[in-house]
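Worked Example 4.2. Consider the chain below.
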Amino acid sequence: MVCPLHGATASENVRLKDLGRFLGWRDNMLVGYGIVSGLAGSGDTSRNQATRQALANALSQFDMTVTQDQIQSRNAALVIVTATLPPTSNVGDKIDINVTSMGDARSLAGGTLIMTSLRGPDRKTYALGQGPVSVGGYRYDANGNLRQKNHPTVGIVPLGATVEVPVHAELVLQDGNMNFVLKDADATTARRIEQQINQAMGPGVARSLDAKTIQVRAPRDALVMNDYVARIEALEVRPDQESRVVINERTGTVVAGGGTRISPVTISHGDIRVSVVTEYTASQPNLVSITGPGVRSLVVGNSDLSVEEPGQSVAASFPDGTVGNLVQALSKTRVSTRDVIAILQAIKAAGALHADLIIQ
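Applying the procedure from the previous section yields the following structure tokens:
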């Protein structure tokens, strides 16, 4: 399958919020460990000392003194709990949490996560998680028979964590400016964003520091910060893209921008087929009644080598054009996708393809 894309036009503008983000506007990772209880005998075995210690510590919070040796239940499992805290979160907000088994539990299906503290890199607790674990799979085994679907030792608790500490993104740096960071560094795109912001917000508001960062002057009044950022993110520019041709030889797929240029080139693509056929025959000795060492049938192989050259499958000259024009012309001549891939590789080797050739 060959997919030539149309060339970029002036109408293909993209919002700034789709091209990058303001420095400081990022998600925050949270992690913690906890206990999933209520499992139907599919939890951690008694060999997991960490699970028994965690259960003993949990019971001690309720004034129950239980030693690790007294805990033999397989209805509980030790798990790692992870979550993503949005850049702006208030107390009481709900977020999803992921639960993964740490021990040798066979399944977390039917379990409930006991209240777990979710901490950030600074070891502070930002959220508390608890609730029934939803597992998109199962595992059942009996008498040596096993039935399993997906990964039953991984689950989620939808909206299972409650934010306890508010988080606010700090967009303004100490020098009173904000930095807009591009997802893909490109000097031309950064220059266009600078010009668009200065045109919409005023001269001298933005300045491109490098191919990835555009410095934007922050407003003096913090109360208008949200409106200020929203206006900038809604601005549209036409990003500059590198010319690339992506080839997947395994699936026979070619994806190329229609604006990718090709210098004048002449293509002559032939097809030579070589086949070797071998027939084996046995030569039987005349005195078959005589037996002994060295007396046996002789297998003789006769090989027939044939070479077929049906002629040139493609012999054409293409003027200065694009990859899209080349692919369309090759398609009209009924050239297979595999041959198109070979032709593009040869054009790149000849220096006529002005794009990066990426082979997957």
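The chain has six helices and 24 strands. Helices lie at 16-19, 49-60, 187-201, 225-233, 323-332, 337-349. Compare this with Example 4.1 before moving on.
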